[in-house]
Input
Amino acid sequence: MTRFELLHLLVGQARSNGFEFRRWYVNKLGLPWQNARQAVETLAAERRYYALLFSHEFASCFWKPGETMTFLVPNQTFTRRMKDGTIGTVSRKAYTRRRTREDAWLYHLKELAAAEEPLRYMRRYLRVEDELEEEPPILVTPTGDDMEEDD
Output
């Protein structure tokens, strides 16, 4: 999938959730609007897609409020004062956490900022056709048992 195609799908998903792409493009980038295709091409070609990905307007529309989030809490090791007054080391294992939040987009913006490849992070949240594996067609061939002989 090309950068243009990915950005086109990202903008499309955000627009379906209420993102006004044209208004954002003109106001934030200060470029004249010609059409949506040209706008996405400009974002892809000039690497201006970072302005889109980290925009609060885009993020709040792309990740709808109240959506269930799944994320991994990493291993943690820290020191604390124990009941007997000694300083001890506490180690916690990593675990998966699921929750619903009104500001899920803020969490995703933080994760996006920490990601090495922001577009790859965004790609995980798209439902596209090439993710779906097509099942091979089932070939039905008539056998001699199924056919009746005419007399």
Observations:
- Residues 130-135 have pLDDT under 50 and may be disordered.
- Residues 130 and 136 are 15 Å apart (CA to CA).
- The helical segments are 3-16, 21-29, 36-45, 49-53, 56-62, 104-114, 118-123.
